[in-house]
Amino acid sequence: xxxxxxxGGGIAGLCAALAAPEGARIVVIDKGEARAGSSPLAxxxxxAAVGPEDSPDLHAADTIKAGAGICDEKTVRDIxxxxxxxxxxxxxxxxxFDRGADGDLDRAREGGQxxxxxxxxxxxTGQEIxxxxxxxxxxxxxxxxxxxxxxxxxADDRCLGVGTAEGLxxxxxxxxxxGGAGALWGRTTNAPGATADGIVLxxxxxxxxxxxxxMQFHPTALDDGxxxxxxxxxxxxxxxxxxxxxxxxGRFVDELAPRHVVTRAILExxxxxxxxxxxxxxxxxxxxxxxxxxARGFDPVTTPLPVSPAAHYFVGGIASDAYGRTSIxxxxxxxxxxxxxxxxxxxxxGNSLLESVVVGRRVGQACGTADRGKEWFGYAPMSLGLASPxxxxxxxxxxx
Length: 400
Ligand SMILES: Cc1cc2nc3c(=O)[nH]c(=O)nc-3n(C[C@H](O)[C@H](O)[C@H](O)COP(=O)(O)OP(=O)(O)OC[C@H]3O[C@@H](n4cnc5c(N)ncnc54)[C@H](O)[C@@H]3O)c2cc1C
Hints:
This protein is α/β, with parallel strands linked by helices. It is built from 12 helices and 18 strands.
């Protein structure tokens, strides 16, 4: 019997494993960590109000505006307030972030942010965070299992564990942290493993889901004609001065407007290019983008890049709150597979890494040792204000 069975070894799952108290018995089940999942692909950064010109209130206001009026404001304020602590915790775990000339954490500005807010490591922020978390988890009492979760064991509205082809993993609590659904779309920035597995497992087990109609399309994926996974050209490029041009060569949109605004503007053009040549330290600051584009036959240093939108972030997911609680007792959700209401109809840049860290960490912190397991996880299932399974998911929310 485990204290916490975690499905998914991305940033949300690893943060839960690392935040659990010493002595807790933890297992992380992942179907293919080395190449799967979005966490290692994250480029632009993790949003947190760490700059002197910023504040959690401003972060929350930007998030709510980008979310087009349907964010859960309480959740937004709660998670934004945790931003600076989340960054400090990641640093304690060994994450390295870029610093400016003044020695402070450097911040990139991305779409929807009124001030630069994305703490980053070059343009490979996810890779750096995953490196540090995987390194830290090695020194903990965490079992790793390579398998695909195929079912959730639920009885009397309580989750008892997770089933895989390798066997059953019983736990006082179980966490779904299986990431998003982008690979269900042809043109996507996501890895092939992003197939909504955990969301489907939770639905089959009777958990409530929310906002499944919201898939966020990133405006600037490299349009290399590929029918499947496309190279992301991070918004931070536009934050550093890259510009969008239509077929006639003209500018047609505020490059740092929220993603849905830029995406729609691009779709109204016959073809669009992103000109990165004016960024002075392009090769040093964006090595991931440069390497990815060159591998596909394009060189951003010399030539504007063809771009088009691609499926990027699944806003919907397992209905849950800012502590990962779902409608089934002892079943938790965190990261992209969860729908906390933080993102409304449109996620603001940098907020998914923040949400993954904050909620994942909280699920781990709540995890008891063998003796305390039931006590720590004895939450009442959250009430989502959904009157019946027939009512439209995601239309009403209330605090648990
Ligand atoms: C190209 C790209 C760039 C991005 N850049 C940013 C950024 O700069 N800032 C930001 O905030 N967000 C960014 N995002 C989004 C962000 O990276 C993700 O939302 C976040 O990393 C999700 O973390 P996660 O732990 O929830 O899921 P993931 O990192 O996707 O991990 C899920 C894990 O679950 C495993 N899994 C899936 N199904 C099963 C199963 N059935 N059984 C067992 N294991 C399973 C997978 O193998 C995977 O390891 C980006 C996304 C992409 C694709």
